[in-house]
Amino acid sequence: MNANPERMTAGTAPARNGIVMDCQLEKVFYGDFLAVRDSKVPIEKNKITGFIGPSGCGKSTVLRSLNRMNDLIPIFRFQGKVSYHGQDIYDKKVDPVVVRRYIGMVFQQPNPFAMSIYDNVAFGLRLNGFKGNLDERVEKALHGAAIWNEVKDKLKNSGLSLSGGQQQRLCIARAIATEPDVLLMDEPCSALDPIATRRVEELMVELKEKYTIALVTHNMQQAIRVADTTAFFGVDISQGSRTGYLVEMGPTKKIFEEPEQQLTRQYVRGEFS
Amino acid sequence: MASHQFDNVDRSGSVSGPPSEGDYALDRGFRGIAWFSAALILALVVYIVIEIGGKAMPAIAEHGLGFLTSTSWNVQTGQFGILPQIWGTLYSSLLALLLGGVFGIAIAIFLTQDFLPNRLAAVFRTIIELLAAIPSVVFGLWGIYVLIPLLRPVANWLHANFGGVPFFGTSLSGPGLAPAALVLAIMILPTVASISVDALRQIPYKVKEAAYGMGTTRWEAILKVMLPTASSGILAALVLGFGRALGETMALAMLIGNSNQISLSLFAPANTLAALLASSFPEAGPVEIRALMYAALALLAITLIVNAVGLAVMKFATRKFEAER
Questions:
Q1: What would be the CATH architecture of the domain defined by A12-110+182-268?
Q2: In the beta sheet, which residues pair with residue A116?
Q3: How far apart are CA B294 and CA B290, in angstroms?
């Protein structure tokens, strides 16, 4: 509905090969620190693209570059291009607020707002000036996030009164209520117990029918379970600093069973983490 | 200590062991001091209420509740009433809360929501807290010599042109409600601002991320997420600021005009309970002192009620916006 990225600028080229976002990252700095270099990560439509790699490899930084969340950090600097439906989101003409309206995000820690469950889900709808049936949309989003049955009788209760796993699904409902184009998920299960994790994973697989998902995960089994495509990031310590870069990207099966790079093979075998 | 000491554990070569008798004694000592301090505060409040109440008893018996609704304060005829003072106290404090609250919260937003580099914001926070260190009497002098002369032309212009509006119903001839409320607002500003700053700074970074992640502009994030999240802390700031305004004495005694009248006009002189007490006590005879004690009791009751209502509102807000525990 309101996910109409063509509105961003005139003269937009159509997305090629079903690639919704084409991240061509050259260098990312935090101050003088080179955090990530040389990573080309295309994100395909209606697929889950998993980002894996050891700590400090920059997988979260890359994910957060996709909706300009890193702009909140004053010392962050991005060199390169992220094409979204043919438009570079780092172009001077592009307002990061607009980018984030189309590219939703679910964070590592569940972060519902200190308001009712209903208001949490309705937040984005109201923000976007939605004039239709709010109740219907809220219910639909809560169904979509597989939490409706648990909260339908207490929509007026605080979102913070829920358990961690429920809070995370509430945050997913909040993110999908406006039906964004792309959903970025930054280790969404790392604060959850195994049962809640499994529910969120099932949810991701359902959601990819409608959305395009990019998922950072520290858990290789999770990538195997849900990701269609996997990007493996490594850490380059040769320059005396720790700089992340994309080592290899391909279909998940290939990355885990017959990767091209020695480093990928060692990582997926669990030889380092 | 009534605890099992696990004497049958083999402790040869180990430094692990139970706390000594001395450790337990210290523990008990600290607990005792904490209890004593807490009880002392409670006892002090009760003592003050009883003491003032006792001294006010003869006046309460004599004037009854009519004291609260009567408007004259006449030592010669022995007629005492504090309605104008109650009105002046509430009116000046509400005006101060309105002004000081708006500016205090605005300052808190400005200092916490990335409008300034961190170091500069810290400098500003210190300056605001220094404002709280200025003695009340200095504010009073500043009000008399700077603020009133500055206000007078504006006030009189407003009265001349919009005299029909009740708020501008009189001219400002010197001391009055407007300069008093302005100074009060400045005096409660540090309280409101610094407690609101604390409330806003306590919001976890992940909440800010969530707001911007939804695609909010900066103002949408502040108004729709940050302020509601910090609402109980900000309400606490307003309640404390209002409490401070109700009890403020010196600057008000110097600026409000000490005139026992009830007027909506911002430029009319008025009086407050605290100012009445401060200015009447030095020359009061025994009969007037009893009446003043009654007035003091009324002021005490007003501040207690305001604080209780404030706490109730805060509790309601906390229930609404934060996790139930």
A1: 3-Layer(aba) Sandwich (3.40)
A2: A158
A3: 6
A69 touches chain B (CB under 8 A): yes
Q: Taking CB atoms and an 8 Å limit, are B213 and A127 in contact across chains?
A: no
Mean pLDDT is lowest, of A4-13, B12-21, B68-77, for A4-13
Residue of A nearest to B319 (CA): A158
CA distance B188 to chain A (A): 28
Give just the sign of the alpha carbon dihedral B10, B13, B14, B17: positive
Q: Where are the domains of chain A?
A: 12-110+182-268
Picking from B212, B219, B229, B318 by the largest number of A CB atoms within 10 A of its own CB, the best residue to mutate is B212
Among candidate residues A45, A38, A40, A36, the one with its CA nearest the CA of residue A15: A45
Over residues A189-247, the pLDDT tens digits come to 887 788 878 888 988 898 888 889 999 998 888 999 999 999 999 888 887 788 899 99
Q: Where are the alpha helices (DSSP H) in B144-249?
A: 148-162, 177-201, 205-213, 218-220, 227-229, 231-247
Q: What is the ipTM score, two decimals?
A: 0.85
Tally of domains in chain B: 1
Tokens 């600028």 locate to A9
Expressed as residue numbers, the domain containing B181 is 83-321
Which residue among A69, A100, A111 sits closest to B207, beta carbon to beta carbon? A111
Record: contact A101-B215, CB cut-off 8 A:
yes
Q: Is B16 domain-assigned?
A: no
CATH, residue B232: 1.10.3720.10
* Tokens of residue A242, six digits: 């720790």
Inter-chain touch A127–B224, beta carbons under 8 Å: yes
**Number of residues assigned to chain B:** 325
By CB atoms closer than 10 A (0-12, 13-18, 19+), residue A233 is buried
Identify whether B228 is part of a domain: yes
Look at strands A229-236 and A243-251 and give their pairing: antiparallel
In angstroms, what CA-CA distances link A57 with A62, A190, A220? 10, 17, 15
* CA B208/CA A217 separation, integer angstroms: 22
Q: Do B215 and A161 touch (CB under 8 A)?
A: no
Closest-CA residue of B relative to A67 is B213
The shortest CB-CB distance from A109 to any of B206, B211, B213 is to B206
